[in-house]
UniProtKB/TrEMBL annotation:
Record-annotated Phosphoribosyltransferase domain positions: 260-487
Reaction catalyzed: uridine + ATP = UMP + ADP + H(+); cytidine + ATP = CMP + ADP + H(+)
Keyword Nucleotide-binding: yes
Family, as annotated: Belongs to the uridine kinase family.
UniProt pathway annotation: Pyrimidine metabolism; CTP biosynthesis via salvage pathway; CTP from cytidine: step 1/3; Pyrimidine metabolism; UMP biosynthesis via salvage pathway; UMP from uridine: step 1/1
Protein name: Uridine kinase
Mitochondrion keyword on record: no
Keywords associated with the record: ATP-binding, Kinase, Nucleotide-binding, Transferase
UniProt-listed InterPro entries: P-loop_NTPase, PRK/URK, PRTase-like, PRTase_dom, Uridine_kinase-like
Amino acid sequence: MESKLAHHVIAGEGRPPWYKADGQNCDCYVVGIAGGSASGKTSVAQRIIKNLNVPWVVLLSMDSFYRDLNDQEQEVAARNDYDFDSPDSYDYDILLETITKLKEGKKVDVPIYDFETHKRLTNKHTTVYGANVIIFEGIFGLYDKKVLDMMDLKVFVDTDVDICLARRIKRDVAERGFDVPGVLQLYKRFVKPSYDNYVYPTKKNADVVIPRGLENLVAIDLLTKHIQRQLQERKMQSRWDMARINPPEELPSNVIVLDKTKQIMGMHTIIRDINTSRHDFIFYADRLATLVIERALNELPYHSRVVTTPTDNTVQGLALRPHIGGVSILRAGGTMENGLRRVIRDAVIGKILIQTDPSNGEPQLHYCKLPPSIQNFSTTDSSHHTNSNNNDSNNSQQNDTFIFLMDAVIGTGAAGLMAIRVLLDHGIPENRIIFLSFLAGPQGLHMISHAFPSVKIVTSFVDRTLNPDTLFLEPGLGNFGDRYFGTESD
């Protein structure tokens, strides 16, 4: 039989990140969909997602949570004698943990199951950062009591068993390498008894029953409207709403703005001038980035150090205590990397790609590559006392790491909020993050400070005249990344 991975679909890139870190303010809506094998559960779920037309939806398949088989069970599975349609074939602990974290708005690593080895892949998974809506589908989607208790809406897809059998034959022959007699044998031995004994009885747990599956468009559309009403009542906040918030006149206490000197104003005049050449733009952007980073260094802890001068005198001085890591929010955040390297020679730099969905203004996480000192941050505390002296030194350095999060412009703050959430999910304490930017709008500063008050923000200029309706275009600067790095036409 061909190597097949468990079917799982991730629609969307995660929920908006402006929730409380403890998950208390998460209004995630969970929909469970159950039904017989090949009844059309996945098709119904995908139709609901299409009809909803909202960002941050996660479609989670129960097939991702099959239990790892031991050697004896693998031998049985190799003979096509293992009952994958039994409730005991799933790992409900991992399933419950995954849904719990998603509902709390936390990062999860959804496992990928390989039907050839009958194990979850050890070094492959799908990372998801929460959702506004979780749609969980599987034959036992309404079976486990603890999972049921987490659902806001429970749906059973009730399709005629003969239609299900015909679909299963077509699917297993075309996609899983079975022959027709083999499919019928498994259906008779395992699938049909499991449906009669376990799956069909869960129909009583459903709030809504959809006969005929995807063919019943009326029922699906009514169900979609109900979910939309529930989301509206929970007042899901979008980036457009954030942009129109009237911020207070006074800036938050954790925001640090460079003094408005003639030098700072002169450089801002140059980089905001449409007639400035790209060569000059890069030069003055690098100078400005250096000043922002140097100001941020004043917020870090230093320790006393005595040094001997070339004239054999001793001087009482200061030495920077922590290790510095930089994380750029691509593409514009990369414009501050040269300034960081000028000031901190050994700084390690990671990258996060967050782009705005033009249809709704929501930030979407597309790429995340963090250096080891950041990725391993959350594991250093537990391993610190068990490693060798050399490793202890490395762990001590990682535990003393501060992160400079870099973006050219803070508009509404949505991209920054998501980037901070990613760092927190990798174990970086909130008070170890310092957000750096060239330019910031009051809306974004207040939004980030409200969500993460321990994160310090250092910017060279606050523009109170930014138009909330055009914040996404980096007003007054054009596209900062394009002006700095150039475009294909340059």
